[in-house]
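Now for my pick.
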Amino acid sequence: MCGQRTAEGWVMEIGRKHDFKFFAGLYPLFIWDAAHLEQAIHEIAILREERRQELDRIPSVSNADKAYELQSWDAILERLKRLRTEEGWQADFG
C-alpha cells in the first residue's frame, strides 16, 4: 500500500466493513476519554489483522517485509494501550 490517499481509502473501506465508530472518515475522532481510547485500540487491532491477512495473500511480499509492516501496527497498538496506565492523557475541557 502506498500513498496517503490509498491508505485513507483502505481505512475507510475496512471501517465500513467492520462498522467502525472511530476511524470512519478521513480524520479520526479526537481521543478524549477512556471509551474513545478503547474503541481506537479495538479498531486499530482490526486494521492490523486485516492488513496481515492482505499481506498473506500477496506471494511477492517477503516474510521480513510482512514482519516490518506489522511491527508498525504493533507499535501503534502498544502506545495506545500504554495510555491506559498514564495519568493526564485525557482531555480536560474545563
Observations:
- The longest helix spans residues 34-56.
- The two ends are 41 Å apart (CA to CA).
- Helices lie at 4-17, 34-56, 63-83.
